């Protein structure tokens, strides 16, 4: 066996160890071993790899830029919270070989069908490799029994043996190649789907074009162009060319359709950009993160540009950059007065400039600039920011940090997200007023924001007093040092909140106030309707309590209920709160902007989330969910090899207080492979425009807390009624194919 490719595995500037890397014959696993000892250190599956980045795209590789050229460097990025793998190849050719090879292997299939052998066989091959213990390319019955345990199946031994013998066409006592495919197909037979198919099929073997149209109209509630849609589905999912020619759909094709994006609970039309993007920024919910640079806790956690990359790739549009004075006149980004590590500000800005619009949408980003930097270092900040460029729609490279200033501050507020494409909006304190930026410099002392960074606020107060004492000459000098940075702050000038009436009388739409979660809850309790009206014309940012040193999150739903646009969460912490965030922003092309309901964009609205009857609503809707079955549910993390889960499904409604509810099915004992529930859950929802629906699968435990298995969350507005599959996500929000739920959805008024 060849040793593999010798490359340097890098953890820090001083930690560079040579390791042999090799792709195993299954093309699914990569192992690496020490050059010195020859001992295998670790291995990882191709399915765990999210992407591969070329060049110096990590702090570690950037620190080695002078020693190793970018052509030899690359970073393997894993799903979830597993740390990245920084590698340095022996040559540029070797690096490209690995980069291109890995990218081809991790390219996902367009869809996965549980009717194996009809679609891509990646998952079948993966299971085979896991079960083939002696690696002889065959699988005996003992290995089959081990496979069933791995697949979460507690099957009667006699039944398993019958399936095994039926697939063993060669009568060799082992399964290989197509025999294993036959076994897998028998194992994944979907009786509930076959029964549904036969309800609409006259001969039980096929759906004619008219029968498929009937199914689409009666059950899937498709109302327009159903015959054309039926033809498209047959052409796309029917595996038999003969059946395609006859315009009929087989049972296999029917299953493939139900497992496809068209058969998903998520309305495929809402996955693309489908909302009006010309409204003012305050009319949108905006995906926002708190202390984006942190990838762990708030006290000793690591600061990393990876935090920014991950957030941006997740659709986040509002990021936080906490700047403090650093050595050699270079500002550093970290959580002040803590033990978190530090990153040079210029590296953060360079990374943000590269990834800000790379996810595939051009809508504006917002950088929340904080920290009591000295004025020379603020000048360094502005130099770094004004030095970045991005490609605009005309193909020109321009600096995104200073949007065009035309007209007055009153019409600036009317610019919508669509008019600010490829722009970066800076939120921070500003010298003077917006009118001064438009018409000439002013002499106003910066206002103190109510940000959560107490040290910053105290520093600004101290400096304001110094400025007052030393007179206008020093004031002019102070302004000149930070003027370039201040001029970039146009749309999101930080101001202290003095009350809703004061804000309405004296604030401008181009200003923004920030609230800690506790202050926001107090305002919601005491003046819910006023808060909604305020958010109809001005931006509001909410941030977590300073007590959340573990980087935990508050519920964003209560903030969205009053129309708060920038609800900042700790993106590094998985849980229900981030599930809600991902669920809301998974629509509209994942652009990070979701248009608020019309009644929350009206400055005279009567809506109060605590009292939905205070406004004229269309009336409640009834959501009926029949939870039918589950398919290939994953094992609980760190469980024993022989353990099989007892799954149950909980459905949660998140919305205004009167709509908050949850119900759950019974648990199915010892079956995570194909559990059947056939239970109906029903909810009344009074404000569906604000509701999110979260499906959670748990492993029941009568003696302790249930264990998380998978979840999927989406906005009520994005639900597609009918027979639908729900493709589950992990705790980190990543896909875990082929795990899914099969449900029937009805929505009535």
TrEMBL record:
Classification via InterPro entries: C2_dom, C2_domain_sf, EF-hand-dom_pair, EF_Hand_1_Ca_BS, EF_hand_dom, PH-like_dom_sf, PH_domain, PI-PLC_fam
EC number: 3.1.4.11
Stretches assigned to the PI-PLC Y-box domain: 485-601
Topological category with respect to the lipid bilayer: Peripheral membrane protein
Region (Disordered): 436-464
Repeat recorded as keyword: yes
Localization per Swiss-Prot or TrEMBL: Cytoplasm; Endoplasmic reticulum; Membrane; Nucleus
One GO location term (cellular component): endoplasmic reticulum
Domain PH: from-to ranges: 1-107
A molecular function GO annotation: phosphatidylinositol-4,5-bisphosphate phospholipase C activity
Cofactor(s) of this protein: Ca(2+)
Catalytic reaction equation(s): a 1,2-diacyl-sn-glycero-3-phospho-(1D-myo-inositol) + H2O = 1D-myo-inositol 1-phosphate + a 1,2-diacyl-sn-glycerol + H(+); a 1,2-diacyl-sn-glycero-3-phospho-(1D-myo-inositol-4,5-bisphosphate) + H2O = 1D-myo-inositol 1,4,5-trisphosphate + a 1,2-diacyl-sn-glycerol + H(+)
Superkingdom, taxonomy of origin: Eukaryota
Compositionally biased intervals (Acidic residues): 437-458
Official protein name in the record: Phosphoinositide phospholipase C
UniProt lineage: Eukaryota, Metazoa, Chordata, Craniata, Vertebrata
Underlying gene: Plcd4
């Amino acid at each position: 066996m060849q040793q593999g490719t010798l490359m340097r595995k890098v953890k820090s500037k001083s930690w560079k160890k040579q390791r042999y890397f090799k792709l195993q014959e299954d093309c699914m696993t990569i192992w690496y071993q020490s050059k010195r000892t020859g001992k295998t250190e670790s291995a990882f599956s191709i399915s765990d790899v999210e992407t591969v980045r070329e060049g110096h795209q990590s702090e570690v590789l950037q620190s080695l830029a002078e020693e190793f050229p970018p052509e030899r460097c690359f970073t393997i990025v894993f799903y979830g919270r597993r740390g990245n793998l920084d590698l340095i190849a022996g040559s540029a050719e070797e690096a490209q070989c690995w980069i291109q090879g890995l990218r081809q292997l991790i390219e996902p299939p367009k869809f996965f069908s549980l009717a194996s052998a009809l679609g891509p066989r990646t998952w079948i091959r993966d299971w085979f490799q896991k079960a083939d213990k002696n690696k002889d390319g065959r699988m005996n019955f003992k290995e089959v029994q081990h496979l069933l345990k791995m697949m979460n199946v507690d099957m009667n031994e006699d039944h398993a043996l019958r399936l095994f013998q039926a697939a063993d066409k060669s009568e060799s006592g082992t399964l290989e190649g197509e025999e294993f495919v036959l076994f897998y197909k028998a194992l994944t037979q979907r009786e509930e789907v076959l029964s549904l198919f036969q309800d609409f099929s006259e001969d039980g073997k096929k759906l004619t074009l008219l029968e498929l149209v009937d199914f689409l109209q009666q059950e899937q509630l498709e109302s327009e162009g159903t015959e054309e849609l039926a033809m498209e589905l047959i052409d796309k999912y029917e595996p038999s060319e003969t059946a395609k020619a006859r315009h009929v759909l087989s049972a296999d094709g029917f299953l493939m359709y139900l497992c496809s994006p068209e058969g998903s609970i998520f309305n495929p039309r809402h996955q693309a950009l489908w909302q009006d993007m010309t409204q003012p920024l305050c009319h949108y919910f905006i995906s926002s993160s708190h202390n984006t640079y942190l990838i762990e806790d708030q006290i000793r956690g690591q600061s990393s540009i990876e935090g920014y990359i991950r957030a941006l790739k997740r659709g986040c549009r509002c990021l936080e950059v906490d700047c403090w004075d650093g050595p050699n006149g270079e500002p550093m980004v970290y959580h002040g007065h803590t033990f978190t590590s530090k990153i040079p500000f210029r590296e953060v800005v360079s990374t943000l400039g590269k990834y800000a619009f790379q996810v595939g949408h051009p809508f504006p980003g917002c950088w929340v600039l904080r920290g009591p930097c000295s004025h020379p270092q603020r000048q360094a900040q502005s130099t770094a920011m004004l030095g970045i460029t991005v490609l605009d729609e005309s193909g020109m490279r321009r600096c995104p940090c200073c949007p065009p200033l035309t007209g007055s501050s009153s019409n600036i507020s009317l610019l919508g997200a669509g008019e600010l494409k490829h722009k970066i909006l800076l939120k921070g304190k500003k010298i003077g007023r917006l009118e001064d930026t438009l018409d000439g410099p002013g002499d106003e002392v910066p206002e103190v924001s109510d940000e959560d960074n107490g040290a910053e606020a105290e520093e600004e107060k101290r400096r304001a007093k110094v400025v007052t004492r030393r007179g206008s000459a020093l004031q002019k000098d102070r302004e000149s040092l930070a003027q370039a940075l201040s001029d970039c702050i146009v749309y999101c000038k930080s101001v202290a909140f003095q009350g809703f009436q004061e804000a309405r009388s004296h604030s401008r739409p181009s200003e923004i106030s920030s609230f800690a979660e506790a202050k926001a809850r107090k305002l919601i309790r005491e003046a819910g309707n006023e808060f909604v009206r305020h958010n109809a014309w001005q931006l509001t940012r909410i941030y977590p309590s300073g007590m959340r040193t573990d980087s935990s999150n508050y519920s964003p739903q209560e903030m969205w209920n009053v129309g708060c646009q920038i609800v900042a969460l700790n993106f590094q912490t998985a849980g229900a709160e981030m599930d809600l965030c991902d669920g809301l922003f998974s629509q509209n092309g994942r652009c990070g902007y979701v248009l608020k309901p019309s009644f929350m964009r009206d400055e005279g609205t009567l809506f109060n989330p605590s009292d939905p009857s205070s406004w004229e609503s269309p009336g409640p809707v009834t959501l009926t969910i029949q939870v039918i079955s589950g398919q290939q549910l994953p094992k609980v993390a760190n469980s024993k090899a022989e353990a099989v889960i007892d799954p149950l499904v909980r459905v949660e409604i998140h919305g205004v207080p009167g709509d908050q509810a949850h119900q759950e099915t019974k648990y199915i004992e010892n079956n995570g492979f194909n559990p059947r529930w056939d239970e109906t859950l029903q909810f009344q929802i009074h404000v569906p425009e604000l509701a999110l629906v979260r499906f959670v699968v748990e492993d029941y435990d009568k003696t302790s807390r249930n264990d998380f298995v998978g979840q999927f969350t989406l906005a009520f507005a994005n639900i597609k009624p009918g027979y639908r599959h729900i493709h589950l996500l992990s705790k980190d929000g990543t896909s875990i194919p082929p795990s899914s739920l099969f449900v029937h959805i009805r929505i009535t008024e």
